Amino acid sequence: MMISILLMVSCKEDDGSGYIFKINIENNPKNLDAQVATDKESIMIITNMMEGLMKRADNGAIVPAAAESFEMSEDGLTYTFYLKKNQKWDTVSEFTADVKADDFVFAFQRMFDKDTKSPYFKDFLCIKNASAVSNDIMSANHLGVKAIDDYTVEFTLEYPYYDFLTLLTKTAAMPCNRDFFEFTQGKYGMSAEATASNGAFYLKEWNYDPYWDNNYIIMRRNKNYSENKYVYPYSLNFFITGDSSVNNASFSEGDIDCYVETEYNKKFFEQNNCSAYQTKTIGLLFNVNAEYVDNYEIREALVKSINREAFVHELPENLSVAYGIIPGEVMLQGKSYRSLSPDKLLSLYDVNAASLWQNTLEKNGIASVDNLKITVSDSFSGSGSIYNISDQWREKLLLMSSVEIVSETEYKSKLAEKNYSVALIELEAENNSVFDFFKYFTEGEYSFVFDNASLKNDVKTASMSTSLADAVEKYSDIEKTILDEYLFVPLFYKNEFFISDTSASDIIYHPFISSADFSEAKYFD
For a 10 Å CB count at each end of the chain, is N or C smaller? Predict the structure, then answer.
C-alpha cells in the first residue's frame, strides 16, 4: 500500500523536480556495505546512496565526485585529493556527521582487514603496504592511505598504476564513517537504519519478505548533498520483482521508467530513449589439449580462413563484427580503447589460408581432419553466424566441421572438464577496464590456454604505465600477442541496451556494473 500512495503523490514541475523514478530490480540486495557488496542489486543502491572521490561521467570520463580536486605526483606514486566541504552523512537514524578524510581512510583500512572479508582488496594491491596489511604483516595504520587534515586524503602507491583513478570509481572505494560503523553494532549495511549516505539519495525504507510479493526499497533525496549539487528527483522506488523477464511489460505499462535489455526491438527502441553499450566479446576458444587444434599451424589456418565480412549482414542487432579482444565501451582515462587502438588492424583473414591448411596437413602427415565440432550454448542468440563459420571451413579447407549446440548446463560442464575442441565463449569484465579483459587469459578461467608467464608479466607492466600513449602501446602489443597464438579468435561484440522513457534524461548508466546513477536525472512532461 505504501508504494501506491507514493506513486499517487508524485509531483512533476516543469524542470523535472520532485519526480519519483521507478525501477525494477530482480533480487533483494544482499548487503549495502560498499566494501563488501558484489551483487548487482546492492551495487545499484550503493551507487545512488554513496559517492567516492571520483566517478565516471556519462561520457566515460573520470571526474571528481566527493573530491573537489586532486593532484598526482610526477612519478605517479602519490595522489592527493581535496574534499568538498559542507558534505554530510544522511541517515534515517539520529546519527549526523560531516564527511571527512578519515571516512575514506577507514573504508580502505576495512577493505584490507581480514575480518571484513572484502573481495575487493586484490584490486587495490597497488597501494603501498597493501599486501603486507592484508596478510597481517603490518597494521592498518601502515596502509598508504592517510588523512593529511579533515579534508585532504593522500594515497601512496607501491608502484605506478595508470588506471588508479578508475579504481577509485568502484563502490569499494566509497567512504565509511568510523563512528557510524561502530554505532550499527555489526549490522552495517543490513537495514535502512544501518546505512548512511553521503550521495544523492539516502535509504528511507527497505522492506523485504521472501514470502511476500510486495517488496521494495525507497530512497529519498539527500538534502545535504543537494546543497553542493542539486538533485532533481525527489525519490527512487525500487521494486524487487524476483524476475527480470517482467521488465519489458512493466516499462510498456508505465510502471517503471527504465530498464536494461539484451535483445534488439527496432520499433520499440525507436519510440523510447535507447542507448547501446558494446560491453562483451564473443569468440572461439581452442582447447590446447584437443586433437588437431593443439597444433599451432592448424589453428592458424582455421583462424585465417574466417571471413567475418561474409556474415556481417546476418547478425542480429545486438551483435557486431569483432576483430579485437576489447569491446568498444572499454575506456582508458575516459577515452574508448578501440578508438585509440582500432581493431581492424588486428584482422587475421587470409585468402591463402587453404594453401596453408594443405601444407600443414602434409607436413604433419595428416590425411584429413575428422569432424571438428564448435561447442555452443543454446543461450547464444547468434547461432546462425557460427554455422556460417563451419560452412566456410568446409568450403575453403574441405574440413568436415559442425556446430554442437548444447544446454547451458552441459556447456558449462564441457568447458570445466575441457571436453571440447573449439568452444564459443563470452568475455564480460566486471569493470570498465582493459586490464580486466586480459586477465581472462593470465589469471582467469582461460589462463590454462595461455600458460605464459611472460604474458602475465606484460599485462602487469602495462597496468603500471605512466602515460596514456604508453598504456595504449603496451596493451595493443598484448592484444596482438594473444591473437597471434590463434588460441582465441574474437568474432562478435555484443551490445546491451539501456531504455528509458522519452520524458527522462541524464540517467547515467554504467554497463559493466549494471547500475544506473540518478544523481543528475531529470523528468519532463
Answer: N
107, 53 contact by CB (below 8 A): no
Handedness of CA 342, 439, 294, 485 (dihedral sign): positive
Q: What is the largest CA-CA distance in the chain?
A: 80
Amino acid at 237: N
CA proximity to 308, closest of 348, 276, 345: 348
- CA 459/CA 31 separation, integer angstroms: 33
Q: Is the dihedral of CA 78, 83, 88, 91 positive or negative?
A: negative
**So what's the pLDDT on residue 300?**
95
Q: Label residues 202-230 b or e (16+ Cβ within 10 Å = b).
A: bbebbeeeeeeeebbbbbbbbebbeeeee
Q: Give me the residues paired with residue 179 across strands.
A: none
Spatial CA neighbour of 163 closest among 228, 79, 94: 79
Query: pTM for this one?
Result: 0.89
Q: Which three cell numbers stand for residue 140?
A: 592498518
What is the tens place of the pLDDT at every residue in 275-303? 999 999 999 999 999 999 999 999 999 99
Q: Cα separation of 53 and 274, whole Å?
A: 29
Q: Where are the alpha helices (DSSP H) in 289-380?
A: 296-304, 337-340, 353-363
* Among the listed residues 327, 300, 96, 70, the one whose alpha carbon sits nearest the alpha carbon of residue 197: 96
The pLDDT mean for the chain works out to 91
C-alpha cell at 225: 548533498
Whole-angstrom distance, CA of residue 156 vs CA of residue 145:
6
Please name the residues in contact with 59: beta carbons below 8 A apart, sequence gap of 6 or more: 334
Q: Is 76 helix (H, G, I), strand (E, B) or coil?
A: coil
Between CA 90 and CA 175 the distance in angstroms is 13
Q: In the 3-class helix/strand/coil scheme, how is 190-220 assigned residue by residue?
A: CCHHHCCECCCEEEEEEECCCCCCCEEEEEE
**CA dihedral sign of residues 307, 309, 311, 312:** positive
Tell me the three cell numbers of residue 334: 575516459
Question: Residue 124 carries which side chain, given as an amino acid letter?
Answer: F
DSSP 227: T
- Kindly state the average pLDDT of the residues 186-211: 96
Q: How many residues appear in the chain?
A: 525
Of 395, 407, 385, the closest CA to residue 491 belongs to: 385
Residues 424, 386: contact at Cβ < 8 Å? yes
Angle between helices 453-463 and 468-483 (to 10 degrees): 160
Q: How far apart are CA 463 and CA 325, in angstroms?
A: 17
Mean pLDDT, residues 446-473: 88
Specify which residues 517 forms β-bridges with: 508
b/e map of 319-343 (b: 16 or more CB within 10 Å)?
Answer: bbbbbbbbbbbbbbbeebbbebbeb
Gyration radius of the chain's alpha carbons: 25
Say how far apart CA 408 and CA 425 lie, in whole Å. Answer: 12
